Amino acid sequence: MAAIISERGSYVAGEWVGETGTLAVENPADETHVVDLDAATPADIERAIVEARRSFDSGVWASIPVAERIRTVHAFLDHIEASRETLIATMVAEAGQPVGFAERSQFLGGLGIARATVALFATLPEEEANPVPVDEATRGRVALSIRRFEPVGVVAAITPYNAALIMALQKIVPALLAGNSVVLRPSPLTPISSLILGSAAEAAGLPRGVLSVVIESGAEGAHLLTTHPAVDMVSFTGSTAIGAQILAQAAPTVKRVALELGGKSAQIYLPDAIAHVARGAAAVVAGTAGQACVAATRMLVPREHKDEVLEVVAKTFAALKVGSPTDPATAIGPVISAAARQRCERFIGAAVENGASVVQGGGRAQMNRGYYVEPTVLDVPDNANPAAAEEIFGPVLAVLGYRDIDDAVAIANDSRYGLSGQVYGSDTAAATAVARRLRTGAVNVNTTLFSAYAPSGGYKQSGLGRERGPDGVRAFQEIKHLAIGELR
């Protein structure tokens, strides 16, 4: 593998800063020390916010032509693309991600989404006519009614550990294109890869203060970003518990808040689609070790086929290679930390105590070092079981039986989450009819789509707002209404 990214500190308003060696990064695959980073101080993060405010209010970025912003963002992405080998090596080292996932999903997928977001943004108007019926109240008074889209201002972007690069790009690129100034705070568990965004800002010539990347070992900076009066918007991806805290912290200053939070998504197999369960099961754990908020960790199948499904899925999981992330044959790497592994073990134990049985896996994978969990299949008796109700964020799949389609829909919707879902059926129309009944932000019917043009976001406690798609771009903009008439 190539050497990892060389930057070691935060990028604040055009300068690299930080306290020497205050953030140690561990490789979860072998528990070795990767590097010590220079964490930002509270004063550094305060300066990042103040400089973002200054850069926005001065118009140094927000007021330049859109075409110029687009050219600069492309240059920003060019620098990231040129750093391919070191960036992939960094993501493998800090997150324990299999090299194939780091390359295809994070690097190529992230850049692909970013480039397509630029193309999408270029098609969206800065102003558009707002149709107003002509009646006695408006006749002769209003010549034009216009909706104008303007940047929100200063955006705090807080990203998770499980897909640091792609999640950062999903926030930073539309925010910058819209004319905002951004302060990015990555997870302390995987901060190294996000430093490429600071060097990319430097290489592309982004004006000072338009993009800062601040790394920290705790949460003091994140708290400052969500409470500071100079911040206009917080965009957060992470757990529902932390999302609720951010809502409370942002409330006194009435910030805009965009949240993509936890999930407990269901994959429903209609009776004629049982032959496809192996593929759907593998997708839950392969590459991510189940550390994905959209992972469909509840598999719903007809009761009469449940034993058959459990046998197939158990064989599928048993065949998945668990091992070193640097081995191209590895399908499942470690979870992010000892605490994450303990969480998986705790939930597997609680599931069994509440009537579930382990069909495959259930313990620690037999590796000398690293935070590995066996890909685990649980036969779950009902939707109240902890393995069906709670987000485990590990390679654990709960298989449940349903009586009929109405029962399947009821089970899928019986969750405080509503982020994603899947329906499989040979009769596409019937499968789509089921998808329309699911209370969730996205549903894939017999396929998947991850695109800059397709929105993602949650119902219920899975979040607020949308990322990607036109709605994801507009999330970083204010809507101003202009009513224009002539003096008479």
UniProtKB/TrEMBL annotation:
User: What is the reaction catalyzed?
Assistant: an aldehyde + NAD(+) + H2O = a carboxylate + NADH + 2 H(+)
Keywords from the named record: Oxidoreductase
Q: What class of enzyme is it?
A: oxidoreductase
Enzyme Commission designation: 1.2.1.3
Q: Does the keyword field hold Nucleotide-binding?
A: no
List the Pfam families hit by this protein, alphabetically: Aldedh
Which InterPro entries does UniProt cross-reference here? Ald_DH/histidinol_DH, Ald_DH_C, Ald_DH_CS_CYS, Ald_DH_CS_GLU, Ald_DH_N, Aldehyde_DH_dom
The Aldehyde dehydrogenase domain, residue ranges: 16-481
Q: Does this entry carry the keyword Oxidoreductase?
A: yes
Q: What positions does UniProt annotate as the active site of this protein?
A: E260
- Per the similarity annotation, which family is this? Belongs to the aldehyde dehydrogenase family.
Protein's name in the database: aldehyde dehydrogenase (NAD(+))
The scientific name of the source species is: Nocardia aurea
